[in-house]
Amino acid sequence: MSNSPDLERRTTTGAHLLVDALLANHVERVFCVPGESFLAVLDALADATARIETVVCRHEAAAANMADALGKLTGKPGIAFVTRGPGATHASIGVHTAFQDSTPMILFIGQCARDHLDREAFQEIDYRRMFGQMAKWVAQIDDPRRLPEYLSHAFHVATSGRPGPVVLALPEDMLSDPCEPQPVLPAAKRVAAAPSGAQMAELRERLARAERPFVIAGGSGWTPEACADLRRFAENWQLPVGCAFRYQDTFDNEHPLYAGDVGLGVNPALARRIKEADLLFALGPRLGEATTGGYTLLDIPKTKQTLIHVHQGADELGRVYAADLPIVSGMPEIAALLAALAPPDTLAWAGSAADAHRAYLDWRAPLPMPGSVQLGEVMQLLRERLPHDAIVTNGAGNYAIWLHRHFAYRHFRSQLAPTSGAMGYGVPAALAAKSLYPERPVIALAGDGCFMMAGNELATAMQYGLAIVVIVVNNGHFGTIRMHQERNYPGRVHGTGLTNPDFAAYARAFGAHGETVERTAEFVPALDRALASRLPALIEIRVPQAASTPAATLDQIREQAERARRG
Asked: What is the CA radius of gyration of the chain?
């Protein structure tokens, strides 16, 4: 290539075209772990620091999880860059979470040079094959001139219909190749279906005829306006509303029509109400394994309840449950129509929502547990101490049962948690949330096993001044797996114990604020100090291994399993 200034003014590179496309789609931050395979992109991002923040993480799984969390919070694709081979395999957990959670996300992977491909070059992987089943679209961009086309398609695919992740491989020589400038395409626009007039008329007719209706709301694609429309619809029709697994922030949990979360460890009274309903209105959720209690809550393939199922993706309707009225629609589109839907003069189910809410309030009352820390009370105190717009994140583990059962979500997008059941999600998600909303308190709840999968991201928190508060529930083992172990192999404990550091001291080693709580009364003062420190902070809560779930200790679980074996 000539170094002539005239030629340089007439040419650009693939990397600069890529960054131009990110800017055109209003991307404000990207998450990455740097790699030599996309150095050209890092160089192009250096010219765009006034408009795009580059957040450098300590592990690619965290970068991908942060991108997923940003996609959940904004409804726009979260962006992550990772290097080839190990970087891509590390990031795959975030792609899987985004796919199962229907989160818009784009993962860019630096790839081997084009003339090295198909030789098992250094860290070479065929990403079309690797990510084929866990992404909406996977492609490799071999011609820099086509970058605007690929990026436009990626943003459209990630946000339209059922949202999800897109993976784009970027050969490193393609990124640095000189090429002529290309037209900058306008920002991608979300494409969504809406119900027909006939479908809305049938929906109203079926609902008006019901005697025991129930609404399960959730899934992705909601907006603050859509949630407000859902509330108006529920109020107009006086409908009991439950929220699908890990979508509890779709409907105000303190609202008198709220009936509880329909997920793992569901309130038995709520499960009975759903089973006894004569009409079930699933508004947004996939009706996956967690929301249906392992596919036991509803009959397959035809539910005994009249089923109205609304989902953003046509492929999801009829996949497991044959709905009486399937509707393909975006959530804002149908929620606006529901808010305007006139109820009949007489509602056969009048008063049932109040009964459901009372049952929910009874269910969330704290229960005693072994040890000096009562996690139910801690979650209640956390609920009382935080403002409504505080964001609470978590990964996977039995510790989250206390959060889901005893905490109340009052504000849309105040909950970030993986429906995919991925551990190590809470801390990266909290960092993404704090980077987006620095003024809002952000709390990450993690078990000891869950935290250690992403605890190194405290370094990221310190580097960018992201003052999250991490609450680590330390019981010295993989609690969920130990619970299942006792249920299936009672008394045969193997492979689930953990040796942990002093987590508070670990946090202080990064320069963060760290405290240990061993009694319930110590929690609120520790939380207040953590929030007041204006530093990333960690509170370790030590609980005994016997405290397995709010409803049962490990001894009780083991005894139940042994009795079942004896017949």
From this structure: 25
Contacts of 150 (CB under 8 A, 6+ apart): 139, 141, 168
CB 566 within 8 A of CB 390: no
- The verdict on pTM exceeding 0.90 is yes
Tokens 């970068």 locate to: 63
Asked if 520 and 378 touch (Cβ cutoff 8 Å), the reply is yes
46 touches 10 (CB < 8 A): no
Between CA 384 and CA 469 the distance in angstroms is: 16
| CB neighbour list of residue 5: distance below 8 Å, 6 or more residues apart | none
- Is 247:415 a contact under the CB 8 Å cutoff? yes
Within 13 Å and on the Cβ side, how many CA atoms surround 354?
Answer: 3
Phi and psi at 149, nearest 5°, equal: -60, -50
Task: Identify residue 497 by its one-letter amino acid code.
Answer: G
Beta strands in 300-339 (DSSP E): 306-311, 325-328
d(CA 452, CA 30) in angstroms, rounded, equals 24
Cβ contacts of residue 155 below 8 Å, gap of 6+? Answer: 25, 77, 106, 187, 188
Query: Are the CB atoms for 221 and 331 separated by under 8 Å?
Result: yes
Q: What's the start-to-end Cα distance of the chain, in Å? A: 80
For residue 300, give the 3-state DSSP assignment: coil
Instruction: Give me the residue label for tokens 């993986």.
Output: 418
Report how far residue 302's alpha carbon sits from residue 323's, in angstroms, rounded to the nearest whole number: 7
Distance CA 260, CA 251 (A): 10
The pLDDT, as a whole number, for residue 3 is 45
Distance CA 276, CA 371 (A): 38
pLDDT tens-place string over residues 487-536 = 999 999 999 999 999 999 999 999 999 999 999 999 999 999 999 999 99
Question: Which amino acid type is present at position 183?
Answer: P
The secondary structure of 86-155 as a DSSP string is HHHHHHHHHHHHHHHTT--EEEEEEE--GGGTTS--TT---HHHHSTTTSSEEEE---GGGHHHHHHHHH
Angstrom distance (rounded) from CA 126 to CA 552: 47
Q: Which amino acid is at 301?
A: P
> Do the Cβ atoms of 95 and 134 come closer than 8 Å?
yes
Beta strands 178-179 and 12-13: pairing type? antiparallel
Lowest mean pLDDT among 180-184, 284-288, 500-504: 180-184
Q: Is the pLDDT of residue 8 over 80?
A: no
The answer to whether 216 and 262 are in contact (CB under 8 A) is yes
**Short-list 495, 491, 497, 500, CA closest to 473:** 500
Determine the average pLDDT of the residues in 240-262. Answer: 98
Give the integer Cα–Cα distance in Å for 63 and 485.
Answer: 32
Based on the number of CB atoms within 10 Å of its own CB, is 378 exposed (0-12), middle (13-18) or buried (19 or more)? buried
DSSP SS3 for 561: helix
Neighbours of 325 (CB within 10 A): 19
Pair 270, 405: CB distance under 8 Å:
no
Contact in structure between 493 and 95 (CB atoms under 8 Å): no
pLDDT per position as a tens digit, 101-111: 999 999 999 99
Distance CA 261, CA 217 (A): 10
